[in-house]
Each structure stands twice: as C-alpha cells, then as structure tokens.
Amino acid sequence: MLDPSASSTTVVSNSAVTYTWNYDAGTLSPLQPAAPNQIVSWTTAGTKSLSLTVTDIGGSHTVTQTITVGSLVATGLFNDTGLDWCSENVTTGAWVNNAVCSDAVNWSANLWVTAQDGYFGRDAQARAGTLTKTGAGMAGFDFTKLGASGKPLAAQTNAWSEDTGTEAASTQWDCVRDNTTGLIWEVKRNDVNHLRHMGNTYTWYNTAATTNGGSAGSPNATNPVCTASATTPCNTTSYSAAVNALPAAQALCGFRDWRLPSQDELSTLTHLGRSNPAIDSDFFPNTAALPFWTASPDAKTPSNALYINFLYGQTDASAAVTKATPYRVRLVR
Fold this sequence. Notes:
The chain is mainly beta. It has helices at 121-128, 236-244, 263-267; strands at residues 7-12, 15-22, 27-28, 40-41, 46-56, 59-69, 86-88, 96-99, 143-146, 175-178, 184-186, 291-297, 304-309, 320-322. The protein has a 4-stranded antiparallel beta sheet, with no helix packed on it. A 3-stranded antiparallel beta sheet has the order 9-10-11, with no helix packed on it. A hairpin with a 2-residue loop joins strand 1 and strand 2 (15-22). The chain is globular and about 90 Å long. The model is unreliable at 1-6 and 31-36 (pLDDT under 50).
C-alpha cells in the first residue's frame, strides 16, 4: 500500500520537504476518496522494489523495500462435475444412485455403464485416491481458503463459524481460490448489514455495449434487496463497483478488480453430486440454493441474461430471465 499521492511537496518548519514513491513499473489502483492508502499491482511476477525518497534542505534519503510478486492467472481449465458415483439397476431391479462405479460384478448386464460421468476425470481420480491437490475440496474440486489480505488460512479444514469464528482461528475467510481454474471467488456473509450479505439481490445492469447483448438491463428496480444508496443502487454493476471501492485496508482479499462471472466461470463451482445447495459448502458457506446472475447476456433475447440456480446447479442455455429480476451475485477475479 502507498500514500494516496505518488509524490508531494509540503512545508515543514519553513523548509520544503519533497517525497516521491517509486513502485517499479507497478500500477496504482484508482484512488478512492475515502481510501487512506492505495494498492499497487503488477502484470508480471518476480522481485519488485518499492522505494520512498524524501528530500529536504539537508538532502535526500531513500528507503527501499523488496518484495516478491507471485504469478496467479486463470488456467483456462474447468472443474469436473462432482459426480463421483454412478447409477445401477442390476441388484435391485430399480435405478439406484450412489452406487460404487468400480463394482464390476453389478455392471455385467449393463455394458454402457462405463460411459457414466463417475468413471472419468478428476472426480474418478479423487475417488481412487490418485488425484494430487494443492488444497482440498469434495470430489475432484481443489480449493484454498483465503483471509482478508488474500493469504491462505493457516488451517484449511476448520469449519465456518458465522458468529464466533475468526480468521486467526481459520473459522472465517473472505475468499476462495480455485486451484484448478485459477479463479478467486468472494465468500458471502450471513449479516444483513454486511456489503456481502448472502441474502442481497440485484438486477442485471451493464452499460457496455460490447458485452451487454444489446440491452443495459435494469439499473435499479424496486424489488432487489441490498444496502442501497443513491450512488450504489441494487444492480450488478453497482455491487462490483462498491466492492472495488473499499479502502485499501478493507479491499476484498487485497484486490480491486472484482467482477461478475461469465456463465462458464460460475458453472465451474457447481457440484452436480450435491443439491440444495449444489456447491462445496465447506468452502462456500452461506450459499443460497437459488439463482445467481452471470455476466452472460442471452443471445436470443437482449432483455434477458443467463443465471445458474444453485439448488441443483442447472447451467443449460435456457436458464435466462429478464434483467430486471432480482437475483444473487458472487463476484470473481
């Protein structure tokens, strides 16, 4: 974090004092009026130097701090579905879910069963104990819990505690990193006064003609529920802007580039082996089993946009509804 200005000159005891920051080709985040500090970001990984030079009547003095910037980008990969079980109708004469996919005896009369989802991919590897994970998660999912500053929690297996939990105890966290896709997701809170309250709903709104499908949507219908104001109405654009406008010390996991996910991105969180909600709730607590907006407009109807319902994880192309509908939001970066 840096002082709000990159350089400044003041007068102290009738002597001119100049100070200048150098942040090694990094980019300062847009200065927010209420922010006492700014965030510096770099587009490349490696060793970076932050320096402050102070000059007064007695000369100049420079203090330098070296930091290491890691590389974390979207991988372009998708998660598996979460289905690590199969269905069978051999032993009972009726279809039964949660059957063991590797039970060859029971599959003898069903030659097609090895085409079932549970036989393939990361989920099958996780079931067989052959999948290596960076973090943890159900089936083939691989998640890491992140604290307020964006650093991984000391303990990754502790359960969420809404009322008494703390980051120090690894029982509350603000974000989750998906180690498969490289995406980082916000975590919701069950607090009506919190900006990221799980019950808040928003209309779909995007004024960018290149990405809104031909219709900006609804800037502020009367039925969404959120902590609204004249400058932050209850729509998807205002919500992401409000999160990105937090002071540097409160920036969500240390970042200010949060946005609405595309349908493809949000679908990577759906756990189709679970329902109500269809997500790994050990990492994503306070997830309502209800529709969440995506940034994807409906190609057929400009006034509609696509959503994903986390009751069962539906992601089909027909999951579109008018942009004035109040739905929930989970931001990504």
